[in-house]
Design goal:
The complex is a heterodimer. Chain A is α+β, with helices and mostly antiparallel strands. Chain A contains 21 helices and 28 strands. Chain A starts with 20 loop residues before the first helix and ends with a helix. By secondary structure, chain B is of the alpha+beta class. In chain B, the strands form four sheets. A five-stranded antiparallel beta sheet of chain B has the order 4-5-10-6-7. Chain B has a four-stranded antiparallel beta sheet with strand order 11-12-13-14, with helices on both faces. Classes of the chains: A alpha+beta, B alpha+beta. Bound molecules: flavin-adenine dinucleotide.
């Protein structure tokens, strides 16, 4: 059943207080580091002091001899697992790589790579024990930069890495893990028909997801091999799957409990601490708690790739793009698996192109392994292509929105990455941008305006949800989706809408791996779509059952009962003259009419509608200092249907803010020894509140017919346009094309001086 | 395992006695917004912490003979709320108000900012420009030290064992004088100065500058005075030519490093820009 007619909705589309809100603002919510178990030990990691080195030996005897130290583990305490593709997290992953990222085996591949871990009775003893572990290294030359890493003669990280996707496959190992290509038509021929060609080379720096909560877990492995894991992650089924594989255990012997999560943005779609805590707990027979510091988070988790994006666009004088080409080089960190493939697939997906070619390279270097970050790959590649679109508009003398409208993808457009797009709302975002007062507001001296668009697939996949009617007529929901963006509220609202009861009557919780069916992690903007579908279907089954129970009470056939405004009513005069029965009336009698009224539904949701966004950004630049102030920002997005509009707006604003930080100040600064020099929030500059204007979120609703309420994923596409929107605004304010992010003050001042 | 003791003496003599007699490393605690961070990161490992805040009179601001006495442990939020000080020394007050956030303001102090001895400390260039003196107490009594003589290098001060700062004196401001402080950071708050500039100046009835003092932060191992910059604007009405000379003089004294917060080239250029801008603000405030 679908509920696409907005006028019929009573709960969906309103803005109730979120069910998890009070606990979060009062501090009662239990986050990863808040967990504690009796007899718990403190686990800590020893990290590599070199960017690239062979581990000659690790002597743990002195650490083990220290009073209070209960266990020391190294890679020798984990199974050496073979190469095997994993489909557990978000994006490509190999179990063997993950195992070696969690604990270095034979070689350290970046400064901060874990080499050993201790479990001790106190934090101080654990620190002292780490200092007593003697690691002998044979230092190797290292490479940080992506293009340096691609050069022949660069230090090779993995002797068994042979570039995939080229024929013939090379016989020499290199740092290029993979080459991918997506193409339509004949690009080389098409460029010859262009009146105007623009070409550019753009770069972005790796940026961290910068969730406020560092990784944390408490793990307890019993003498019978039964393990329980409390941790903060984007998917406890993911945690269970990775830990089982990395430790050689059966899934049923691990129970993974979701802690409240203090942000993830993709960075908590893999494990770092849990397998280590598991090994320590196994050895000691005691629970082990591990908590990262912010420095650990920067040195050894995330970020997303930095990249080089070479773009060429060819157009007719009227603005019709006849050919488009992009070459992307993404750094993956120490192990293959950068988001270059989605980077390729997304960067031209806003446009209806007949002749297009995108080539991508996945390149390893001596940095932490990248993790997913909001629309993985798309902000990077789209920074290049949307900057190039701005250049094309300038060269053609065309309004940048007009240029985009002229080439915009619409229903029926075949995307370079394969599918034919349907029910998309890109053009409405452009029209709304053009009509928005922001777009025509006057600009002052040193001020400029930029526009950029973005695309993200959004995904569906496996989700489970259950709906329980309680004895008093209140309702409980359990899902398997960690709530990062307000999904408990959305689940409760959809359920309340189906049952015709107030949202406050519905209490949603996130169940652990033993209490609810398998659910893929919270990522890909999938939860409101896929888990929402499971919950809606479960609520519908409950509603059907409530009708059956009412029919029993009235002793009439179930078909003769209708559900209206939260009540069972006779379907018509012929059904009989019964007074309506409320959900509570039926619940109270459940024991007499067949027992508990519950339903659990698992789905493999398909048909997640893609998301499109267009952003407008105004900046003012101080030419003497190179400082850029974002004055005004409007983010327009097709959201399908906003279940809880405030949380949709929150996603849009958050994505835009993160994108602005990416554009202006965030970067990893490496020193000559290959060590990260800014592993903290003081010098890794995410925007602070006073850096941001109010970000106006404009929601366009082009419903997705594949979802009962028309929802599309909304959490990722808002981070795609800001990088180019900001850079295009700086271009408009200064005449300077800042092709290398971040547009930090020293860089912009230097660009002024060079002019 | 290591141990750490804490004491909060209730008189200057008691404090001096504890500091002078301390075994191992003794650290004075004012607001703790530097010290606690460094304790936590392991950058400093003191054996004893001596909290000054129980010493009578060490917190608060007094007006004496038209000048001001600021207790060493006075939180910057209190400084910002003092009307008389804000009117007389708006530059010192705005500099101290830039330190950290609302939460940090409730704790952080001028003494801590100075004695932490960071080249980037915000209040220090403003205090130097304003001719502030520190009253240092110690085993050999009390002495008045110009603020620019306290810091000797990053993390190092001229204070001897057993000494600490009790208070700061700001002289009675000359008529038609004022001051200003500007810093450059890559975002709008919660950051460390890439360059900081304090300017204090006096004008005559015709708007001609008769006295000026300019100090830079974050462009050398310690804060530096810019005497040539002062000379360049004294006698002028801060016209473009004077400003250009000030800009050049400020750049000339810079001896910065390239680090994660800025390049040598950028720091030097910004020092010139901010010197001009801060002088312009101070000039307007002085009634020029
Ligand atoms: C979040 C945050 C933001 C910050 N932002 C800024 C900023 O924008 N600008 C800036 O300049 N600083 C900033 N700081 C640093 C710090 O807040 C300031 O340096 C502050 O003024 C220190 O004062 P305090 O009283 O807290 O010092 P404390 O931590 O108490 O002491 C600092 C040092 O001075 C010594 N000391 C303290 N009092 C005396 C005394 N009376 N005599 C002799 N020695 C003494 C201590 O032993 C210690 O070595 C920031 C700090 C934090 C945590």
């Amino acid at each position: 059943m679908t509920y696409l007619n907005k006028a019929d909705l009573k709960v969906v589309g309103t803005r109730p207080i979120r069910p998890d809100g009070v606990d979060k603002v009062t501090g009662r919510a239990v986050f990863g580091a808040d967990q504690a178990l009796p007899g718990m030990l403190v686990g800590k990691l020893l990290r590599s002091t070199h960017a690239h080195a062979k581990i000659v030996s690790i002597d743990t005897s002195k650490a083990l001899a220290l009073k209070g130290v209960k266990a020391v583990v190294t890679s020798a305490d984990f199974p050496d697992i073979p190469s095997e593709e994993a489909f557990v997290g978000e994006g490509p992953m190999n179990f063997r790589d993950l195992s070696r990222n969690v604990m270095a085996r034979g070689k350290v591949l970046y400064h901060g790579h874990a080499v050993a871990a201790v479990a001790a009775t106190t934090s101080e003893i654990a620190d002292a024990a780490l200092a007593l572990i003697d690691v002998k290294y044979e230092v190797l030359p290292f490479v940080i930069d992506v293009e340096e890493a691609m050069k022949p003669g660069a230090p090779v990280l993995h002797n068994d890495l042979f570039t995939q996707g080229t024929t013939p496959q090379p016989t020499e190992p290199s740092n290029v893990a993979k080459r991918v290509q997506f193409a339509l038509g004949d690009v080389d021929a098409a460029f010859k028909t262009a009146d105007v060609i623009v070409e550019g080379r753009y770069t972005t720096e790796p940026v961290h997801q910068a969730y406020i909560e560092p990784h944390a877990c408490v793990v307890s492995v019993g003498a019978d091999g039964q393990a329980i894991i409390y941790s903060s992650s984007q998917g406890h089924f993911m945690v269970r799957a990775y830990c089982a594989k990395l430790l050689g255990m059966e899934l049923s012997n691990i129970r993974a409990m979701p802690s409240e999560i203090g942000g993830g943005f993709g960075g908590k779609t893999l494990v770092y601490l849990e397998p280590v805590a598991m090994a320590l707990s196994k050895q000691t027979g005691r629970p082990v708690k591990m908590v990262m510091t912010r420095e650990d988070v920067f040195r050894a988790t995330g970020p997303t790739s930095g990249g080089v994006i070479e773009v060429k666009l060819g157009a007719k004088k009227d603005g019709t793009i006849v050919a488009a080409e992009a070459i992307l080089k993404f750094q993956a960190g120490a192990f293959p698996g950068s988001p270059v493939q989605p980077g390729c697939m997304t960067c031209f997906a806003m446009y209806d192109l007949k002749d297009v070619r995108i080539i991508g390279y996945d390149v390893v270097s001596n940095r932490p392994k990248v993790a997913a970050y909001r629309a993985p790959g798309a902000p990077i590649s789209t920074f290049g292509t949307e900057s190039a679109m701005d250049e094309l508009a300038l060269k053609l003398g065309m309004d940048p929105i007009e240029l985009r409208l002229k080439n915009a993808a619409k229903d029926g457009t075949k995307a370079a990455y394969g599918p034919t797009l349907q029910n998309i709302g890109y053009i409405p975002t452009l029209q709304a941008a053009k009509a928005h007062p922001h777009y025509s507001a006057p600009l002052g001296k040193n001020q400029g305006r930029g526009v950029a668009s973005g695309f993200w697939f959004n995904i569906g996949g496996e989700s489970s949800g259950s709906v329980h009617v309680n004895e008093d007529g209140s309702v409980s929901i359990v899902t398997g989706s960690p709530d990062i963006g307000g999904s408990r509220a959305s689940m409760a609202m959809m359920c309340a809408e189906v049952l015709g009861i107030p949202m406050e009557k519905v209490r949603p919780v996130v169940g652990d791996t033993a209490t609810i069916g398998f659910t893929h992690l919270t990522g890909g903007s999938r939860v409101t779509f896929a888990t929402g579908m499971a919950v809606t279907q479960a609520a519908e089954k409950v509603r059907d059952e409530l009708k059956v129970r009412a029919a029993k009470i009235w002793d009439i056939p179930p078909e003769a009962v209708e559900w209206k405004d939260g009540m069972a009513v006779p379907a018509g005069a012929n059904a009989g003259g019964f007074d309506p029965l409320s959900l509570a009336d039926i619940a109270i009698k459940a024991a007499k009419t067949g027992g508990p009224i519950i339903s659990e539904v698992s789905v493999n949701a398909q048909g997640a509608g893609p998301g499109f966004a267009t952003h407008i950004c105004d900046v003012e630049v101080d030419p003497e200092t190179g400082f850029t102030t974002v004055l005004r920002y409007t983010a327009i997005q097709d959201v399908g249907r906003a279940i809880h509009p405030s949380y949709v707006e929150g996603q849009i604003q958050g994505g835009a803010a993160q994108g602005i930080g990416w554009a202006l100040n965030e970067e990893y600064i490496y020193n000559a020894k290959g060590e990260l020099d800014n592993p903290g929030f003081l010098d890794y500059r995410v925007p602070v509140a006073s850096d941001m204007p109010m970000i106006e979120a404009v929601m366009i609703e082009v419903p997705n017919p594949r979802h009962p309420f028309g929802a599309k994923g909304v959490g990722e596409v808002p981070i795609v346009p800001p990088l180019a929107a900001v850079a295009n605004a700086v271009r408009s304010a200064t005449g300077l094309r800042m092709a290398d992010l971040p547009i930090s003050p020293p860089k912009l001042r230097a660009a002024f001086d060079a002019r | 395992m290591s141990s750490l003791s804490y004491t909060a003496p209730t008189s200057v003599n008691e404090a001096v006695g504890i500091l002078a007699g301390a075994q191992g490393l003794a650290k004075i605690l004012s607001g703790g917004t530097d010290l606690l961070v460094q304790l936590r990161s392991g950058r400093t490992k003191p054996d004893i912490i001596v909290d000054t805040k129980k010493i009578p009179g060490i917190m608060g601001i007094r007006e004496v003979d038209g000048g001001f006495v600021i207790g060493a442990a006075t939180p910057c939020s209190v400084i910002g709320e003092h009307a008389g000080l804000s009117a007389a020394y708006p530059g010192v007050v705005e500099a101290s108000g830039l330190i950290g956030s609302t939460q940090v303001q409730g704790r952080c102090t001028l003494a801590g900012n100075l004695c932490n001895a960071s080249p980037a400390a915000d209040s220090v260039p403003a205090m130097i420009a304003a001719r502030a003196t520190a009253i240092v107490v110690g085993p050999s009594g009390q002495r008045a030290v110009p603020v620019e003589q306290i810091v000797t290098g990053p993390g190092r001060t001229s204070l001897a064992k057993g000494e600490f700062i009790l208070e700061f004196h700001l002289p009675k401001p000359a008529p038609h004088s004022s001051d200003a402080y500007l810093r450059f950071i890559p975002r709008t708050e919660m950051d460390i100065a890439v360059v900081g500039v304090g300017v204090s100046l006096t004008v005559d009835a015709a708007g001609v500058i008769t006295d000026a003092r300019i100090a830079l932060g974050a462009v050398a191992p310690t804060q530096v005075l810019v005497p040539d910059g002062a000379a360049a604007i004294i006698g002028s009405k801060l016209d473009d030519a004077a400003l250009a000379k000030l800009d050049a003089a400020a750049r000339a004294v810079c001896n910065p490093i390239t680090d994660k917060r800025g390049t040598i080239d950028f720091r030097i250029k910004i020092a010139g820009v901010l010197a001009r801008r801060a002088a312009t603000i101070a000039y307007k405030r002085a009634g020029g």
